[in-house]
Design goal:
The structure holds two protein chains of two kinds. By secondary structure, chain A is an all-beta fold. Chain A is about 0% helix and about 55% strand. The chains are: A mainly beta, B mainly beta.
Chain lengths: ~110, ~110
């Protein structure tokens, strides 16, 4: 069965500093990996995905994520955090033949000025 | 031009009532989903329809009944509402059940059962 783990309930970072939100996955076969962001009282918005190819994936709002097959990780990163990046971030995975996205528990990102 | 729209946005109702949530997508997607987000923000899939056919039916009480009149609509009817049904329900769509394009989500319906 496919699953993702987001080991941190919350990540705190100062504005202007780099940020990392961690995600590890478990699937049989090659994974399709996604990051979504949820702002308060809003739906989930797509940030980026890894399907195949380059291990470094660039997405919306300056975010990027690095796929690491040996560590089964897909950490979300941004070189310089903004206060407006404060939100709830979800990692999700689907295996190649699966028909649903399975989400992690979410990580709250707080960026302080 | 909302891609995935849900109505109502908020729903407060008493235990034992029956209620429906509606979802419509204008993206031309073939597959639609219902997810439940609980008070701890955990997201769990409930149902999925592909071209009006049910393809995912997770372990959900049979008080919950989805209906897809066409591939652009997926409604969720809940009978005999219980306190534990209080949650945010998200509708989503994708190009296909195995699509690698990810999902487009609606803004959610916050259901409160009192």
């Amino acid at each position: 069965a496919q699953s993702v783990a987001q080991p941190e309930d919350q990540v705190n970072v100062a504005e202007g500093n780099p940020l990392t939100v961690k995600c590890t996955y478990s699937v049989s076969g090659n994974p399709y990996l996604f990051w979504y962001v949820q702002y308060p009282n809003r739906g989930l918005q797509f940030l980026l995905k890894y399907i195949t190819g380059d291990n470094l994936v660039k997405g919306s709002y300056g975010f990027e994520a690095e796929f690491n097959k040996s560590q089964t990780s897909f950490h979300l990163k941004k070189p310089s955090a903004l206060v407006s990046d404060s939100a709830l971030y979800f990692c999700a995975v689907r295996d190649k033949y699966g028909n649903k996205l399975v989400f992690g528990a979410g990580t709250i990102l707080r960026v302080k000025s | 031009d909302t891609a995935v729209s849900q109505t109502p946005k908020y729903l407060v109702t008493q235990m034992g009532n029956d209620k429906s949530i509606k979802c419509e997508q204008n993206l031309g997607h073939d597959t639609m989903y219902w997810y439940k987000q609980d008070s701890k923000k955990f997201l769990k899939i409930m149902f999925s329809y592909n071209n009006k056919e049910l393809i995912i039916n997770e372990t959900v009480p049979n008080r919950f009944s989805p209906k897809s009149p066409d591939k652009a609509h997926l409604n969720l009817h809940i009978n005999s509402l219980e306190l534990g049904d209080s949650a945010v329900y998200f509708c989503a769509s994708s190009q296909g059940p195995s699509s690698h394009y990810g999902y487009t989500f609606g803004s959610g319906t916050r259901l409160t059962v009192v």
